[in-house]
Q: What sequence folds into this?
């Protein structure tokens, strides 16, 4: 079962459907007035976190755990994603290490060291030519996307651990008794950490910034220097960074695809066949890790400036890390059962929504779904509510208003008729004798009682 990392806060969820609109896989159910992530269909890309105008709940708090380990005297070492240069206000890893040592860390290293070994494995797979297509396995949401929605293409996914897994193993070799922490911009890394136990905790860059602020540790920034001798695996943080970190293998093409939408399109194309000797770098975030969800949540877009900083920090050399840890990893299909509703079921819902004809189906997207038919299908599957349709609600409100007005006018007419009858009876009384008046008053009383 996939670890639950992100939960949508129910108290602040208020009928906006933005998370549904931005979730390309529609892995969000809306019921009882709030949205809920369908964990088995979610790939933990973090788009719902970025787009939500309210507060998303992250279902973990490793910051307290890490601080406690340091407080009790445990040796704590950190593996930092290459994207730190795009989000942390430091000039290089030495600046960041100096700041984190003040917090109590025993050592701080770049996970780009693990990325270097991962790139060598990708090169080996191409050289051996056992796989006609090789898809990078460094991005957790891409792995989940393929396991759940494209299990037939797992044969193309490189059977190689991620840079986080590899570097964490290297740190455990170097510091056998240490508490290993990964620091990065990706919510899905927490899911990967929980599922693989490769490290002991995971912090976001925002967690680290918060900690530094509370501890009074100011970021150290001696300026980003052009690293002519820098390491090429530091490019992992940018789009096509994996491709640029590898040595070209003769006869193989290398392609970089970023963003869930384009990755899905690329997988659909691969499913058609006819493509061979191609390495495909896939990243769920547009711009890759420099534009990770935890970075976008705080700074909006960071594609251009983040890539520029990575380019300035990277180079053409290698760390020359010895391969002393296992690299192989197996992936297992976990297909999602998305049996579509029957045509009759969809048509029945469309009829109820008054969207049965083309002129009534506005496909406005207000509900978060791309079309009225998609919305009707979601209703059949119990993932949506009919009240999510704004035109439907508008027509329902107008119909209700008309009914209220009609009922009010009818009630007013009845009151007027009753008062007119009373007035007529009084007028007739005034024209009669005393004896007759007594009789008429009795009739008037009976009339009024009858009206009541």
A:
């Amino acid at each position: 079962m996939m670890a639950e990392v992100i939960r949508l806060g129910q108290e602040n969820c208020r009928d906006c459907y933005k998370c549904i609109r931005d979730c390309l896989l529609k892995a969000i159910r809306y019921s009882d007035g709030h949205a809920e992530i369908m964990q088995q269909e979610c790939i933990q890309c973090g788009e719902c976190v970025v787009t939500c105008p309210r507060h998303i709940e992250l279902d973990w708090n490793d910051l307290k755990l890490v601080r406690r380990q340091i407080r009790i005297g445990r040796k704590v070492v950190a593996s930092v994603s290459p994207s730190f240069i795009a989000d942390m206000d430091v000039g290089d890893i030495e600046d960041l290490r100096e700041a984190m040592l003040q917090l109590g860390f025993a050592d701080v290293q770049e996970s780009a060291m693990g990325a270097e070994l991962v790139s060598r494995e990708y090169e080996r797979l191409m050289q051996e030519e056992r796989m006609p297509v090789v898809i990078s396995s460094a991005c957790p949401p891409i792995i989940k996307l393929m396991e759940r929605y494209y299990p037939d293409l797992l044969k193309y996914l490189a059977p190689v651990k991620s840079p986080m897994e590899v570097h964490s193993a290297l740190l455990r070799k170097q510091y056998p008794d240490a508490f290993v922490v990964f620091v990065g911009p990706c919510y899905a890394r927490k899911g990967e950490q929980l599922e693989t136990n490769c490290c002991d905790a995971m912090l976001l860059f925002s967690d680290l910034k918060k900690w530094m602020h509370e501890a009074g540790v100011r970021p150290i920034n001696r300026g980003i220097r052009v690293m002519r001798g820098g390491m090429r695996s530091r490019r992992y943080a940018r789009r096509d960074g994996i491709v640029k970190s590898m040595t070209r293998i003769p006869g193989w093409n290398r392609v970089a695809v970023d963003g869930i939408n384009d990755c899905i399109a690329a997988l659909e194309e691969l499913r058609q066949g006819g493509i061979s000797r191609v390495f495909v770098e896939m990243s769920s975030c547009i711009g890759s890790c420099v534009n990770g969800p935890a970075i976008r949540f705080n700074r909006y877009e960071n594609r251009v400036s983040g890539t520029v900083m990575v380019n300035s920090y990277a180079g053409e050399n290698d760390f020359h890390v010895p391969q002393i840890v296992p690299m192989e990893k197996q992936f297992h299909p976990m297909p999602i059962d998305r049996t579509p509703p029957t045509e009759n079921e969809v048509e029945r819902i469309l009829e109820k929504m008054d969207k049965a004809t083309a002129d009534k189906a506005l496909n406005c997207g207000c509900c978060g779904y791309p079309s009225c038919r998609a919305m009707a299908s979601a209703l059949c599957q119990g993932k949506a509510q009919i009240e999510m349709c704004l035109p439907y609600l508008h027509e329902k409100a107008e119909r209700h208003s008309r009914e209220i007005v009609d009922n009010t006018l009818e009630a007013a007419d009845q009151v007027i008729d009753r008062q007119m009858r009373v007035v007529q009876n009084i007028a007739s009384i005034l024209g009669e004798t005393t004896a007759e008046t007594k009789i008429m008053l009795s009739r008037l009383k009976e009339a009024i009682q009858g009206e009541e």
The mean pLDDT is 88. The first strand starts at residue 6 and ends at 7.
